[in-house]
């Protein structure tokens, strides 16, 4: 990591002024978020240092390499989305890839941290990609029901307590139209369960609880169907689910025997 380049970037802008472009008035941060020093940074993502260091560090912690892991999510998208929401978008690394994969889609990136959004917006501008970045809580986004056909979250759930991840999945369900997809990319829960040393390396307050849980089960509890988790290398996983038709709309096919009986009775 080039320390001088990082320092130069840190001092290249007035972070408070830039962050004001994204800060919502009277915005309340969830308690699990503002009390923790994620990655050992005081105040976690509510410190511009988190935004400055995020990309240079992330490229070393996603084996075999960041491109491969992120492409693991893109490759598992089955729909042709028109409206995409990337929750906990951070510095936008996945959001930009989503827009590149689906250039005609409207893409929104949502995050609690205004500093992460400053970096995300800057990266999108440099790449000439039209993406809307905004501050918000993934548990309660404020978007209307059924307003997206693809919702993603990458590297978010290992940083949220499981109860919060479950509420985020309920919100994804509400936000998706019928047939819409949710894709969650994160650490591989089975690997993290036996590789304790991995959970010790990173200063992540909720990663052990994440490892003990199951994104599959959380997604099922939120109402999703056709749920499937696949390994991305042995360190990461992508879980995909689909929003089904409401039960009241599902046509029940008459049993073949019933049809035969009706024929027999004339
Ligand atoms: C590890 S970063 C992942 C960033 C990005 N998705 C990526 O793939 O690199 C986690 C991000 O989730 C954000 N976050 C955590 N809880 C959130 C919530 N409830 N709503 C929105 N963003 C949240 C943090 O601010 C942080 O930017």
Automatic annotation (TrEMBL):
Which of UniProt's keywords are assigned here? Methyltransferase, Transferase
Q: One Pfam annotation, family name?
A: Methyltransf_25
> Which domain of life does this protein belong to?
Bacteria
What does the record give under GO molecular function?
Answer: methyltransferase activity
What are the Methyltransferase domain coordinates in residue numbering? Answer: 84-180
> GO biological process annotations for this chain's record?
methylation
Record protein name field: Class I SAM-dependent methyltransferase
């Amino acid at each position: 990591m080039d320390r001088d380049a990082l320092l130069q970037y840190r001092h290249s802008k007035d972070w408070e002024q830039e962050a004001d472009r994204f800060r919502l008035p009277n915005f309340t941060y969830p308690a699990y978020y503002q009390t923790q020093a994620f990655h050992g940074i005081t105040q976690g993502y509510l410190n511009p240092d988190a935004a400055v260091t995020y990309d240079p560090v992330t490229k070393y912690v996603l084996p075999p390499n960041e491109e491969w892991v992120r492409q693991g999510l893109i490759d598992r998208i089955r729909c042709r989305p028109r409206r995409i929401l990337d929750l906990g978008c951070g510095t936008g690394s996945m959001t930009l890839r989503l827009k590149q994969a689906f250039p005609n889609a409207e893409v929104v990136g949502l995050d609690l941290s205004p500093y992460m959004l400053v970096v995300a917006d800057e990266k999108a501008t440099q790449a000439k990609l039209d993406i809307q970045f905004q501050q918000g809580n993934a548990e309660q986004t404020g978007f209307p029901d059924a307003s997206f056909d693809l919702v993603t979250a990458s590297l978010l759930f290992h940083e949220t307590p499981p109860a919060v991840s479950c509420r985020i999945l309920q919100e994804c369900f509400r936000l998706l139209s019928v047939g819409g997809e949710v894709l969650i990319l994160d650490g591989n829960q089975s690997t993290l369960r036996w590789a304790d040393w991995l959970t010790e390396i990173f200063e992540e307050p909720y990663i052990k609880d994440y490892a003990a849980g199951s994104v599959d089960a959380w997604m099922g509890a939120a109402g999703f169907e056709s749920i499937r988790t696949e390994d991305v290398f042995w360190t990461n996983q992508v879980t995909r689910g689909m929003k089904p038709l409401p039960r009241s709309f599902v046509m029940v096919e008459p049993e073949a025997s019933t049809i035969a009986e009706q024929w027999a009775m004339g």
